[in-house]
Design a protein that fits this description.
The chain is mostly helical. It has one domain: Up-down Bundle (Four Helix Bundle (Hemerythrin (Met), subunit A)). 76% of the residues lie in helices and 0% in strands. Helix 3 (57-85) packs antiparallel against helix 4. The N and C termini lie far apart (63 Å).
Amino acid sequence: MNLKTSMIQSTEKTDFIKWNPSYKTGIPVIDEQHEHLVNLCNDFYKNLLTNKGTDEYKKLVKETLDTCVKYAATHFQEEEKLMIASNFSGYNEHKHSHDVFKEKCQDTCFNIDDISVAEAIKFAKFLYEWIHNHIAHEDKLYIPTLKKFLQERASK
């Protein structure tokens, strides 16, 4: 077994970002979207590692990153609508965090042809840290307000 085959097998068996119960919000639609976002980031990382040195490397990495960026934007819109509807007081700060993330991802996607593998791996680490910090911590700030809103709406 050569190194490339070994790397492909190891990345297929492991994920860069493991879905963690601490990411759960208790709101199924948000949890499903968060888990899908984690899976997309894992796809990006796997393509980054398993395809380097191939002719399709940058194309595959760019496609998976683009898919991740588009899905994140869709998810953020959904989250932001829920925050507005529930009158979450930290909406502006939370939206700013989303905007900074989207901008960094879009810039990286736009410049993917010019970045090295090491820089792309550094970006994957940024994705990992952002997902862990944002989903496990920052998103938890609006959940009580949203749950209260959803309960009140359901009781009407």
